[in-house]
Amino acid sequence: MDGTGVVLITGGSGGIGAATARRLAQDGWGVALAWRSGRERAETLAAELRGDGARALALPLDLSDAEATAAAVDALAEAQGGLAGLVTAHGPFIRMAHVSAIPPEQFRRTMEDDVFGAYHAIHAALPHLRRSRGPLVAMATAALGRYPATDMLSVAPKAAIAALVRGVAVEEGRFGVRANAVGVGMLSDGMFDALQAAGHFTESFVEKSRANIALRRLGTAAEIASVAAFLMSPEAAYVTGQLLMADGGYAV
């Protein structure tokens, strides 16, 4: 990388966000780990990356507030010499339930947290990405290619985010901005423990899920980070508007 600016990673204290920060820092990017509730994790990781010689910082960011998000992104770009790219990896804990069992208020809150958060981050970042010709990568879900029952609270917001990414790709390509999404498959880390503790990922459920994956195993956050790193890199200079599945063949 040319050392100009940093990549903003929303959800930078979470499993995929943290893994992506590690990989991008390894590849020479400066990274800003945005957090809402994971301050200690974000600050600890940023300090670790700085100790390894990377340019890294932790950034408090409430994506539910559009004005505050825009102000924070502007201030970050001003302080760091620009915004080199954006990765959206935030997202609330998702309760698995059939559509008939999801209260409308819970559906609304989930859409607001995930979709509006992504929109606020992307909208705030676009003027800076135009200047840097920087890439955008958004985390979506492999369930957009093969819907698993009880996963609507994940699929619906990620479908909207994937559509947003396509729109950005079409409209912003003339400014040199590339936009892609990653269809994240079932992982053995990240939210896995929380979903297991909540009773959603029972042993039987995990085994059935594994049997539906062509590679017959779960993925890792580090493997998702590798896909994001490719999409951020010059090697993907002619790739935009895509939903790249990283799911072990689940959606085939």
Automatic annotation (TrEMBL):
Belongs to the short-chain dehydrogenases/reductases (SDR) family. Gene3D superfamilies: NAD(P)-binding Rossmann-like Domain. The keyword Oxidoreductase applies. This is NAD(P)-dependent dehydrogenase, short-chain alcohol dehydrogenase family. InterPro entries: NAD(P)-bd_dom_sf, SDR_fam. Keywords: Oxidoreductase. One of its GO terms (molecular function) is oxidoreductase activity. The lineage of its organism: Bacteria, Pseudomonadati, Pseudomonadota, Alphaproteobacteria, Rhodobacterales. PANTHER family: OXIDOREDUCTASE, SHORT-CHAIN DEHYDROGENASE/REDUCTASE FAMILY (AFU_ORTHOLOGUE AFUA_5G02870), SHORT-CHAIN DEHYDROGENASE_REDUCTASE FAMILY PROTEIN. It comes from Albimonas pacifica.
